[in-house]
Amino acid sequence: MPKQQPKPHAKEPVRLPVRKTYKLFIGGAFPRSESGRTYQVNDADGTFLANAAKASRKDARDAVAAARKAFGGWSGRTPYNRGQILYRIAEMLEGRHAQFTAELRATGLPKSAASAEVDAAIDRWVWYAGWADKLAAVLGSANPVAGPFFNFSTPEPTGVVAVIAPDSPLLGLVSVVAPVIVSGNTAVVVAAPSAPLPAVTLAEVLATSDLPAGVVNILTGDRAELAPWLASHMDVNAIDLAGAGGGDVAALEEAAAGNLKRVLRPGDGDWTGDPGTARMTAFLETKTVWHPVGV
Amino acid sequence: MPVADFGDAGGVSTETLTSAAELRAFLNGLPGVDRVGAEERAARLASRSIKTTAKAAAIDLAISMVDLTTLEGADTAGKVRALCAKAARPDPSDPSVPRVAAVCVYPDMVETAVAAVAGTPVKVASVATAFPSGRAPLAAKLADTEAAVAAGAAEIDMVIDRGAFLAGDLMKVHDEIVATKEACGDAHLKVILETGELATYDNVRRASWLAMRAGADFIKTSTGKVAPAATLPVTLVMLEAVRDYRAATGRRVGVKPAGGIRTTKDAIKYLVLVNETAGPDWLTPDMFRLGASSVLNDLLMQRRKLATGVYSGPDYFTLD
């Protein structure tokens, strides 16, 4: 009887899977939820993917404080510089293309569709990045007035914007975050609860690009739990309800009226079309200056 | 926690003439502070969860203990008046908010502050004795103190001569405190130890006892100009000192941590520390103060969150 040859891989130890527990993204750091809670994220087949942090209202409060702290510096940068930073983020997104594709495939998309959606998301980010130094030219104006004044209007960022991200885990997310920050706002984003991993990866991209800490803060967890606290928060200047459930919108709008937040209502949920400038202009104020001339 | 033996401290009154040798022997004979133990105990007490009604009570108590402070070279009379208005009505939209205990200013601003708080129970405290360094001749320090008292200051925050203390000239530190106390007249004397410069907890304990024996009405951690300012373990050591001093002499001395207290959470940690160390007798503005200014806005924000159920923002409170 010939001596049995051992199979080449039989001696190699079985590699244990590295189970991940992701964290929040607040003020440029990755803290656990103050509550210590996590929830399980599964792929489309119900197989375990990772644990995600389940943010509490106090995490939302901390995120708003971080966003407020970052607002002065971010809105004070030149639009050109903001555009450069957003382009840099697009480069980093491109570098993570394969990871984003894998995360979208886990949500049930076929490979070609997942890859196409990552392409679309990066293109969307680049498209918004290009608007940074064009907004003032397109939306501002020199106003003819009946008097010896040079009168002009410029768009100014609204402030801290709470973003309830839609279910579209990457294209939808990018389509709501980029238009908020490109004009100098800072954002507190509640990621889609069903597929938070692309949001976590986006946070890792943002943390390693040149984006200042606190400009974008990303919370994972239960939308219905977090949204009312952000809608009623007196230090939030605007709220984007893109991902809010139909039944919750009226209550959130009512809570947002407490400090007259700007509110952007949910759209039709299709993120593939031409985005237009509406999502940017929703979070801009108009400053008009009267400057005496010819006296 | 075992009560240490403080020897003959019970026999020493503030009136007694203290000899340098006796003072040195007493202070060096104080038991050492267990550094790890003190830090561990402070951290343990800081982890207490204070919620809902207890939190509401703690916030109001903390507001009533604040010494609202402005000690900048750029202070103007207008800024001091604004601070005084805030001290008397911390939240103009809510009359149920308690007043703060005092405003704390430089001596030349005392007159402005006294006029601004007239008719309210808010007291005016003044730093003195060449604050914050204390590097001036004794005569200048006393003149500084007398000027502040003459201008109407009800409380004097003096700094000790840290250089003399660290060099071992304890009698000089003692005599300066005694002389300043005399210059204060009826005004309360808070003695700033500047614990950030004393290097060890043992020194904090010695300086606390030294100040108390010299007649301090309050012992205060820091000027706020040196890092680290107030910390929980340092305040713990000082609270133990006032507790043991009362056990030895019957006299109660107040404690004031100052500097670095910015959030409601910080303030409540200090209140827990006071209650568990010196005891509830110290949980009054007469016996415990928080030297701070930015913490007041956070206390007001938290108070409004409890009252309205929604998070508030800094836009709704005055800047100071």
Element layout with pairings:
The complex is a heterodimer of chains A (295) and B (320).
Chain A: E1 38-42, E2 48-53, H1 57-76, H2 79-95, H3 97-106, H4 111-130, H5 135-139, E3 141-143, E4 149-157, E5 160-164, H6 171-181, E6 186-190, H7 197-207, E7 216-219, H8 223-232, E8 238-240, H9 249-256, E9 262-264, H10 278-281, E10 284-292
Parallel strand pairs in A: 5-6, 5-8, 6-7, 8-9
Antiparallel strand pairs in A: 1-2, 3-4, 4-10
Chain B: H1 20-28, H2 35-46, H3 52-65, E1 66-69, H4 77-88, E2 102-105, H5 110-117, E3 123-127, H6 138-150, E4 155-159, H7 162-167, H8 170-184, E5 188-192, H9 201-213, E6 218-220, H10 232-249, E7 254-256, H11 264-277, E8 290-292, H12 294-308
Parallel strand pairs in B: 1-2, 1-8, 2-3, 3-4, 4-5, 5-6, 6-7
Keywords:
heterodimer; A: alpha/beta; Aldehyde Dehydrogenase, Chain A, domain 1; 10 helices; 10 strands; B: 320 residues; alpha/beta
